UniProtKB/TrEMBL annotation:
This is TCPR2 protein. PANTHER family: RUBY-EYE2-LIKE PROTEIN (PTHR23287), TECTONIN BETA-PROPELLER REPEAT-CONTAINING PROTEIN 2 (PTHR23287:SF16). Pfam families: WD40 (PF00400). The gene is Tecpr2. One of its GO terms (cellular component) is cytoplasm. InterPro entries: WD40/YVTN_repeat-like_dom_sf (IPR015943), WD40_repeat_dom_sf (IPR036322), WD40_rpt (IPR001680). One of its GO terms (biological process) is protein exit from endoplasmic reticulum. It comes from the Eukaryota.
Length: 212
């Protein structure tokens, strides 16, 4: 008996006006009017995270249809990368053009989950624009890469409110992608792709020829 083909579902793609309308196109700073550019994006089933050129992170909760805003203290600088993670707590990592990295532990209404917004900073290691971020599935490890080739490992203890960071790898060209799974960090740069084994601290290059 011939199997019945599943019906084809057509979907229409359109701008997310409900999201875009909640983000200002300009802000006033003193006597100047500054245009707001959207510079980074990440999504999961719970949130849409949008970074901006004014250093503001816009976080839209898809279940509550609410927009919240988070920012860095101090000078206003462009957000270059955002990375969401849903594990026991909801986390979002944010990187900026000057190399600042922060982790926000979000508030949850669910029982037993985090009830107070907390922020962790990766301080003083990156000195240039953040180009990649990668979480471990449990939210205890964060890897960050910049356009000078530095990769930093941050160990987070959410219960104790501690973030310890260290430089684990330095490449001669910009980091363009990071992904982590089972003690192996996949690293792509402008010149090559490699596997970094975090326990042995060893490197295995993928392929032999450099990228053109």
């Amino acid at each position: 008996m011939a199997s019945v083909a599943s019906p084809i579902i057509f979907k229409e793609f359109c701008p997310l006006y409900y999201l875009l309308n909640a983000i200002p196109t300009k802000i006033q700073k003193g006597f100047r009017s500054i245009v707001v550019y959207l510079t980074a994006l990440d999504t999961n089933g719970d949130y849409i995270a949008v970074g901006s050129s004014i250093g503001m992170l816009y976080l839209y909760c898809r279940h509550l249809n609410q927009m919240k805003k988070y920012n860095f203290e101090g000078r206003c600088e462009s957000i270059t990368f955002v990375k969401l993670l849903s594990c026991f707590d909801d986390l979002v990592a944010v990187g900026t053009a000057s190399g600042r990295v922060a982790v926000f532990q979000l508030v949850s209404s669910l029982p037993g989950r985090n009830k107070q917004l907390r922020r962790f900073d990766v301080a003083g290691i990156h000195k240039s624009s953040i180009t990649a971020l990668a979480w471990s599935p449990n939210g205890m490890k964060l890897f960050s890469g910049d356009d000078k080739g530095k990769i930093v490992y941050s160990a987070l203890d959410l219960d104790q409110g501690i973030c310890n960071s260290s430089l684990v790898l330095e490449e001669p060209s910009s980091i363009v992608q990071l992904d982590y799974n089972q003690k192996v960090l996949l690293v792509s740069t402008l010149q090559r792709t490699l596997l970094f084994y975090t326990e042995e601290k060893s490197v295995n290059q993928v392929g032999t020829q450099p990228r053109k």
